[in-house]
Write a structure and sequence with these properties.
5 helices; Aminopeptidase; about 180 residues; alpha+beta; 5-stranded antiparallel sheet; single chain; 8 strands; 3-stranded antiparallel sheet
Length: about 180
């Protein structure tokens, strides 16, 4: 199901047909370093992860992380989109986490689609959707201590640094940011 559209992107719910993309994304060195190793090593595990994480979040919370597709007209002839079978280039949306009082925004893109403005374009649209459609007054964001590109993006989106925190059942200290409506 399509959630929203921007000039260059379509954001839609993730489904089991995204298994190849999800397996690729979750095993990127940058994903593992900055977000964490989800221990997804085959397509069957990827489909189960999609069902138990993303599909479950849509049903329980009315939101989740969405597949970010690059519209065909914005793909140049030798773009990396031709290297992958699935037109999905990343994920962006909201997560409801234990230990955080509000939804937090999340995003991750395949390396060949980083530094092209897609994360900002999708995150800005997701924030607008969150405010106008979902009624989110306050949105949080978390990053690893050294994820400078995500920290810069959050700054561009108007997030303010709140401090360090730890999620339940984790020993890793992370940075917490917030964005309040108004």
């Amino acid at each position: 199901m399509k959630i929203l559209e921007t000039e260059r992107l379509i954001l839609r719910e993730i489904d089991e047909s995204d298994d190849t993309f999800m397996l690729d994304l979750l095993n990127q060195p940058s994903f593992i370093k900055y977000i964490g190793d989800r221990n997804i090593r085959n397509l069957e595990q990827a489909r189960e992860f999609i069902e138990t994480r993303y599909r479950k979040s849509y049903a329980e919370n009315g939101f989740g992380l969405y597949a970010v597709e690059l519209k065909a007209e914005f793909s140049d002839g030798n773009d990396s989109a031709r290297e992958i079978r699935n037109p999905v280039i990343g994920i962006c949306g909201f997560v409801r986490r234990n230990g955080l009082p509000d939804a937090d925004i999340g995003f991750a893109f395949l390396p060949q689609f980083e530094r092209k403005g897609y994360a900002y374009e999708s995150a800005r649209a997701v924030m607008k959707h969150g405010r106008q459609v979902l009624g989110l007054k306050r949105v949080l964001a978390i990053t690893s201590l050294d994820n400078e590109s995500s920290i810069r993006l959050l700054g561009k989106l108007g997030f303010k640094y709140e401090g360090l925190t730890r999620l339940p059942n984790s020993t890793e200290e992370i940075k917490l940011f917030s964005s309040e409506e108004g």
